[in-house]
């Protein structure tokens, strides 16, 4: 199950952003989410999902890319 819906819900909860207005495949920076908010969002994701992003992969900034990365990390945790 993809984490995309949970990410969209978190964006709405934290930043009052309507998920319907975001393109899951576009850069969040290009959609009006500034770099500070994006960094805070990544920390929120780590807390919410109980994961830690590897430094080399923390540059993913589209919702669909983040969802895939979260799903990979979660799968590796359960393996």
Write a short abstract of this structure.
This protein has 79 residues and is mainly alpha-helical.
Plain-language structure description:
The protein has 79 residues and is an all-alpha fold. It has a single domain, classed as Orthogonal Bundle (Non-ribosomal Peptide Synthetase Peptidyl Carrier Protein, Chain A). It is 54% helix and 0% strand. The protein has helices spanning 4-15, 35-49, 63-78. It starts with a helix and ends with a helix. The mean pLDDT is 87.
Write the SSE topology.
Blueprint: H1 4-15, H2 35-49, H3 63-78
- N-to-C CA distance: 16 Å
Largest beta-sheet details: none
CATH superfamily: ACP-like
CATH class membership: Mainly Alpha
Shape: globular
Number of helices: 3
Strand content: under 5%
Low confidence ranges: none
Counted beta strands: 0
Kindly identify the CATH topology.
Answer: Non-ribosomal Peptide Synthetase Peptidyl Carrier Protein, Chain A
């Amino acid at each position: 199950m993809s984490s995309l819906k949970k990410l969209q819900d978190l964006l709405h909860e934290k930043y009052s952003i309507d998920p319907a207005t975001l393109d899951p495949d576009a850069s969040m920076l290009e959609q009006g989410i500034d770099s500070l908010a994006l960094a805070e969002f990544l920390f929120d994701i780590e807390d919410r999902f109980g994961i830690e992003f590897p430094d080399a992969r923390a540059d993913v900034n589209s919702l669909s890319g983040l969802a895939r990365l979260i799903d990979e990390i979660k799968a590796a945790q359960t393996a």
